[in-house]
Specification:
alpha+beta, 223 residues, 23% strand, 6 helices
Length: 223
């Protein structure tokens, strides 16, 4: 089996991840955590698309996963193909769309990067020709140089923030796979997910305790 065939045969895992995140964000009141990142807020917002074959249901809104047609589409056999998420970790917030078939991030919106000093310091204003130059006044070249440094720092900080988002998604996927490929999935994850999809309310505390125990036991075996 070549690489392309291996990828194609495993595309369903991305959709299962989206379904799992949808389920957990509702069950656990939008507060998730991983062993590597600690707790954070995560919920579906703005868009949710489900499909089966050529039939697709696209839902837009502030909380699309709570719309009536979302669960109805799920019960008709459609699975999530893409979903918009809001991530809150500490004082930082970001939003992104996760595409199920490729696990690619799209439409990523990161928090604004603030420089330490007021932006007026880096503003370049044309000086009147008659105005005498102050002895310690910065030259235009020095101001441009400083502005370039600030721009570079902002760029690298945004790349750091993007990497933080990617790491959260990677750890969520890793823990999902640990559950999906182990005995925990049939034991309690799948039954809880099935009950949730039918409109029932599984015991969130019991689910979370079992999940932590299963992931902890798997981590010990991996050492």
């Amino acid at each position: 089996m070549d690489l392309y065939e291996r990828v194609e045969k495993r595309r369903f895992l991305g959709r299962e991840l989206l379904l799992h995140l949808w389920f957990e964000t509702e069950l656990l009141s939008a507060t998730l955590s991983t062993r590597a990142t600690g707790p954070f807020g995560l919920w579906i917002e703005k868009e949710l698309s489900l499909s089966a074959g050529k039939e697709t249901t696209r839902i837009k809104g502030s909380l699309p996963a709570q719309a009536r047609e979302a669960k109805e589409s799920l019960l008709l056999g459609k699975t999530p193909e893409r979903a918009g998420f809001r991530l809150v970790k500490g004082e930082r917030e970001a939003s992104f769309v996760l595409v199920g078939d490729t696990l690619a991030l799209a439409s990523v919106s990161l928090p604004a990067v603030l420089v330490e000093e007021a932006p007026e310091r880096y503003a370049l204003e044309a000086a009147p020709a008659a105005r005498p130059r102050k002895p310690r006044e910065r030259s235009v070249e020095a101001e441009l140089e400083q502005a370039e440094v600030v721009a570079q720092e902002s760029f690298f900080e945004r790349m750091h923030l993007l990497r933080e988002v990617e790491e959260v998604v990677e750890h969520l996927y890793a823990e999902f796979l640990a559950l999906r490929l182990g005995p925990a999935y049939a034991a309690f994850v799948a039954p809880a997910l099935r009950a949730w999809s039918l409109g029932e309310a599984p015991d969130a505390d019991a689910y979370e305790a079992k999940k932590k125990a299963a992931l902890g036991a798997r981590a010990k075996r991996a050492r």
